[in-house]
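Entry:
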Amino acid sequence: MLDETDRRLIALLRTDARTPVAKLAAALGVTRATARARLDRLVASGIVTGFTVTVRDPEPEGVRAVTLIEVDGRHAEGVIRRLSGLPEIRALHTTNGRWDIVAEIEAPTLGAFDALLRTIRQIDGIASSETSILLAARKGR
């Protein structure tokens, strides 16, 4: 469905969603009308669902990490409900492979981070987990 020009257009918009259509057209080597038509088609088809502003946050003051979670049997929905109720959980993703859930977490201090990990490990249905602290962000959205 997407050709190379569509992919390049999306990449340009990811870099700066406010880029004028004339500048997009020049970068793509197409006319302004072609760039506008392609953009309109991507929006109408639901491939592009919106345009957003990203803000570069200063270095976080707390501890951020990714926790990989293995769930026992059929407890996934209960585990997800419990995890969703924790304010330190920034995002939850279900996945395939060795781990069932990936949790993005953030705590204000190392002590709070340690307490959060204990809380997560005690949730009924969690078989095991592995946590990696995030150091420096190299690329973000």
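The chain has five helices and four strands.
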